[in-house]
Amino acid sequence: MQTAFDEMNAAGASGGVTRAHYESYARWLADQPESLMRERREQAELIFRRVGITFAVYGDKDSGEGTERLIPFDLIPRVIPAAEWTSMQAGLAQRVTALNRFIHDVYHGQEILKAGLVPADEILNNAQFRKEMMGVDVPGGVYSHIAGVDIVRAGHADGSGHYYVLEDNLRVPSGVSYMLENRKMMMRLFPELFVNHRIAPVAHYPDLLLDTLRSVAPSGVADPTVVVMTPGMYNSAYFEHAFLAQQMGVELVEGQDLFVDGGFVYMRTTRGPKRVDVIYRRIDDDFLDPRVFRPDSQLGCAGLVEAYKAGKVTLSNAIGTGIADDKSIYPYVPKMIEFYLGEKPILQNVPTYVCREKDDLAYTLAHLPELVVKEVHGAGGYGMLVGPAATKAEIEAFRAQLVANPANYIAQPTLALSTCPTFVEKGIAPRHIDLRPFVLSGSSVRMVPGGLTRVALKEGSLVVNSSQGGGTKDTWVLED
Description:
Elements: E1 9-10, E2 17-18, H1 23-30, H2 34-51, E3 54-56, E4 68-70, E5 73-80, H3 82-106, H4 111-114, H5 120-124, E6 146-154, E7 162-169, H6 176-189, H7 191-196, H8 205-215, E8 226-229, H9 238-248, E9 251-253, E10 258-261, E11 264-267, E12 274-276, E13 278-281, H10 304-309, E14 314-316, H11 333-341, E15 348-349, E16 353-354, H12 358-366, E17 371-375, E18 384-386, H13 392-404, E19 409-413, E20 419-424, E21 427-436, E22 438-441, E23 445-446, E24 452-455, E25 471-477
Parallel strand pairs: 5-25, 7-15, 8-9, 8-13, 13-14
Antiparallel strand pairs: 1-2, 3-4, 6-7, 6-22, 10-11, 11-12, 16-19, 17-18, 17-19, 20-21, 21-24, 22-23, 24-25
Helix pairs in contact: 3-11
Pfam families: CP_ATPgrasp_2
Protein name: Circularly permuted ATP-grasp type 2 domain-containing protein
Domain Circularly permuted ATP-grasp type: 77-456
């Protein structure tokens, strides 16, 4: 794999030159003693631990910290110039708009299936397809109100890097609390940087989120009551659920706090029942309502789906959105954009081989050592093969799985993900990164500048997921 595009430093005859949008920060960084940076990193870790910003890791045998782990925070920001963000923002809005149109179509006329652009069996036989949603209208036709779109930059040190969408997360995307806390931490540790740089703010995200949720309340509700619904404190993202409820000034509830009466949803309060109009749910479809999905669910609320289908309460995100963020559907998103919007995609997909198709499977089997192969229903960096980093035995074992069930996999070239200088134990070194902007869709499509930058802290690793030891950085979008 060739040398990756570096976000901060361009290759040059003299060994490298700082990119223009990083020049001011690079000068500042060069003046900072390493001892000061180490001190600041320890300070950040102490504060994060005190605040309780942790990520639960299940089945983690190697961690001495049990199931609760701090997500490592890196002190060196990822910087994006204004023009790049403007283009990316337009591409994100276009993509999420098309995906929402697709989900509506899947549960109504299924025009894209009739046109033959997406194979019908990929939808109708998909585990994420919810037949209960057929013909159900949702406010404004918006299904995914909160989307987290994973973007990578791939390219080489001597040329420009190009942004690609790696994955669409339309069900219950997480990580926005870390974006907000990373910014607060940087402002606390290095206030002078925010005096000397015009950095677009992100602190208003909870206000945008609440405004988005209120905008999709059932019709006729003038002053909607919004709640955040959590599976409970043992969920890996519980910190974020509590954080967002607190930041929005709304109640954090569990399924047992809710009940349905007369077709409406209520929450139990010390002052008696209070009607709930919008539920920002951080619970998967299967556990929402034991009468409709899993009867053994202790996390949901009996009767919730009936109230939802009757238009008495809004669920964000809608039931059934998972049909659009399944990896088997990802290859068709560019066609969706053209089909529903009549536009060319602004943001490109990573080239993808769909292993259910004979030619793509043959290519994948012949090139396993150089490809990344993913389970279509996998998440969190699990269930995948990174060919260049795998042993011959691992490749052959994966080959057998692939031959046995090709429809369960897609394959992609191993991208040279861009790197960003990162403060690691041995000092400052390049590490691979991605970016997860958060796109809010309600009466309009909005987002705060940037998103969550995740970083693979292990040298050479391309896996940025926090569940596998990845860290995070503050993301700066520079204002003109």
